[in-house]
């Protein structure tokens, strides 16, 4: 199994993502063609960053800002592979959701709607598509700190859009550090969309290639590069998974304590966490708390359970085989009260066909809060829209 592992020890931006993938072996001509079709001929050259040879990419785009529809129209007319364009569309939908969470419905893109961002996203998605890895993992992302100036005036670093994008992803971050912006919204959105595997799930692997993408700045004290590595893992686990199951019985915790604990376990890396009502000895009501844990996180999650629940014993069923269906996230547009919303739906696949559709909770909840409509109505409409779309595409049975 071939996996691209990004190491953003000094942050990430769109041009750095492209450069790292090109240095890793991505198809330069395909990337040039895709970027040229949305802006113009990019400059791609090798530069030095604190003694490290890296690939720098420059778009030479003008500072023109666009709405989401304008960005998507520009993407649709670009000369990039279909799969890369679909991925680029999802990247901009991530950015758009972040902008709306900060500025409200109908927000414009500002910096990330500029032509250079469009070229960076198309180029990065084309580069990843040309490498065709089996998965992508991202190590903790350096963000930086301080303040900067943007379209809305002075803003904190990391930028609000960057924080909102990362809050929707499973990426880990390294707060603080150098007093400047290390991770841009475009860089955060690209790595969030690319990521399919948590780094602690990789297991033993061999490094087959290393690439460095250069940032525009060249400080003397630290290499301003994004590192990417092509790994070969020992086996392909895309259709299966190894997990630990953690369980404990509790009869002296409140519903509020259970809810909080389940949330904490998910935040700390659990694949799933549930509480099952049971009748315990002497007729006492209680719960079985069950946690699905990656093996690398078992010790940590066991400690969280013991600390939050006060339990004296936690059972561990180690290295259980779990069959995993292929899953993708697709975005659909729905209209409520004259306003359009993009809502993600999680799709389960089997033998090339979609077998399940589920609207993402957080986006449905936000739409429900802002429109005043019932949660179930929004979820049902989004799933029905997705179902019609997939039937038309021939990937879902009527």
From TrEMBL:
Gene3D superfamilies: mk0293 like domain (3.10.20.300), Transcriptional regulatory protein pf0864 domain like (3.30.70.1380). One of its GO terms (molecular function) is lyase activity. Pfam families: Ni_insertion. InterPro entries: Ni_insertion. Keywords: Lyase, Nickel. Transmembrane segments: none annotated. It comes from the Archaea. HAMAP family: LarC. NCBIfam families: nickel pincer cofactor biosynthesis protein LarC (TIGR00299). Belongs to the LarC family. This is Putative nickel insertion protein. The lineage of its organism: Archaea, Methanobacteriati, Methanobacteriota, Stenosarchaea group, Methanomicrobia.
């Amino acid at each position: 199994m071939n996996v691209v592992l990004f190491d953003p020890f000094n942050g990430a931006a769109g041009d750095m993502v492209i450069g790292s993938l090109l240095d890793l072996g991505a198809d330069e001509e395909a990337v040039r063609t895709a970027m040229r079709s949305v802006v113009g001929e990019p400059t791609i050259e090798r530069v030095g960053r604190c003694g490290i040879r890296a690939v720098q990419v420059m778009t030479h785009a003008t500072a023109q800002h666009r709405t989401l529809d304008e960005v998507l129209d520009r993407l649709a007319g670009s000369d990039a592979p279909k799969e890369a364009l679909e991925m680029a569309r999802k990247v901009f939908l991530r950015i758009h959701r972040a902008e709306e969470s900060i500025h409200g419905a109908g927000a414009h893109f500002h910096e990330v709607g500029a032509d250079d961002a469009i070229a960076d996203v198309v180029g990065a998605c084309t580069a990843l598509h040309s490498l065709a890895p089996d998965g992508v993992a991202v190590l903790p992302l350096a963000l930086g700190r301080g303040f900067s100036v943007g379209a809305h005036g002075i803003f904190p670093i990391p930028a609000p859009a960057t924080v909102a994008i990362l809050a929707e992803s499973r990426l880990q971050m390294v707060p603080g550090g150098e007093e400047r912006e290390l991770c841009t919204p475009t860089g955060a959105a690209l790595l969030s969309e690319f990521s399919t595997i948590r780094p602690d799930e990789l297991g033993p692997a061999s490094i087959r290639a290393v690439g460095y993408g250069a940032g525009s700045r060249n400080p003397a004290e630290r290499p301003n590069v994004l590192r990417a590595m092509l790994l070969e893992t020992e086996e392909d686990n895309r259709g299966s998974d190894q997990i630990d199951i953690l369980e404990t019985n509790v009869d002296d915790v409140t519903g509020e304590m259970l809810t909080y604990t389940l949330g904490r376990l998910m935040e700390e890396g659990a694949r799933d966490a549930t509480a099952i009502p049971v009748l315990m000895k002497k007729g006492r009501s209680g719960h079985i708390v069950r946690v699905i844990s990656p093996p690398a996180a078992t010790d940590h999650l066991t400690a969280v359970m013991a600390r939050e629940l006060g339990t004296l014993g936690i059972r561990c069923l180690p290295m259980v085989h779990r069959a995993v269906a292929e899953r993708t996230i697709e975005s659909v547009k729905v209209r409520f009260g004259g306003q359009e919303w993009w809502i993600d739906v999680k799709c389960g696949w089997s033998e090339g066909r979609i077998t399940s559709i589920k609207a993402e909770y957080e986006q449905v909840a936000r739409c429900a809060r802002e429109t005043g409509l019932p949660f179930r109505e929004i979820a049902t409409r989004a799933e029905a829209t997705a179902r019609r779309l997939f039937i038309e595409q021939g990937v879902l049975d009527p």
